[in-house]
Sequence to fold (75 residues):
Amino acid sequence: MNRQEIIDRLYREDPQFKEWKDKHDELDKQVAKLERHHPMTHDLQIEIEKLKKEKLYYKDLMERRIAEFIKTSKG
Fold:
């Protein structure tokens, strides 16, 4: 099973993983939208950094769950 298949399976079968991925994807869209804003203000830059940190938090949670899945499926 490749990485994308694992992600797809976890997304379908693990409600917590689905919540994390949905939140991560939503934050990604928000960041992309804000980054297109011109002129870029200091407050906007701070907001973007805050959203990026939150996005990274959800990515880390998903990566741990993926690693757990791989570890348990090999054993």
Q: What stands out?
A: The mean pLDDT is 96. The helical segments are 3-13, 15-35, 42-74. The longest helix spans residues 42-74.
